Structure formats: structure tokens, C-alpha cells
Amino acid sequence: MATPQCPDTASPSARASGRCPTEPARAGRAALLLGLAFVGWYLLTASGHFYNVDEEALYLVTEGIVERHSVALPRDAWGTA
Q1: DSSP assignment of 18-78, as one string?
Q2: Which DSSP symbol is given to 12?
Q3: Dist CA 27 CA 56 (whole Å)
Q4: Residue 18 falls within a domain, yes or no?
Q5: DSSP state of 70
Q6: Pairwise CA distance, residues 37 & 44, whole Å
Q7: What are the pLDDT tens digits along the chain (81 aa)?
């Protein structure tokens, strides 16, 4: 059985083992790393609280879509029942 030929860009350990990474695998790994970098940056810069009523309303609508499948706000959304 013939060993696959690795491209010149493959690492020496990959060439020695005969397991050459494919281009889609490299692209997928690069996309994953880029996505993790963006998520990390977002988590480092996010404040974790709302600054005004618009942000709270947007959150409540998003929560309603996910949990109740409706854009209607709950009755106690603004602290009044």
C-alpha cells in the first residue's frame, strides 16, 4: 500500500506519519479558531447588564421568541402587575 504524498506545506511530523491534513480540515480549523477568537473578544468586552430600556425590551422579546414562540412581552415586563 502506497503512503500518501503530503504537500510541501505539511508539517514534518505529518509527512513522517503519512497522515496529511486535508485542505478542508485546515479551513475548518481556521474558521473554528477565528470564531473562538471573536467569542472570546465579545466575552471580554461585554458588560453583562443593560444600560437602557431598549436593550431590556430587545432581550425580553428575544426571550419570548425562544421560550414562548411569541413576540408579546409578559405582563410584569416593566415591574407592574
Answers
A1: T-PPPHHHHHHHHHHHHHHHHHHHHHHH--SS--SHHHHHHHHHHHHHHHHS--PPPGGGG
A2: H
A3: 38
A4: no
A5: -
A6: 11
A7: 445 566 566 566 655 666 666 666 777 888 999 999 999 999 999 888 888 888 888 999 999 999 999 999 888 877 655
Joined grid coordinates for residue 27: 479551513
In the block, which residue shows the cell 473562538? 36
Enclosing domain of residue 54: 23-75
CA distances from 48 to 40, 42, 64 (A): 14, 11, 20
Whether residue 9 is contained in a domain is answered as no
CB 51 within 8 A of CB 64: no
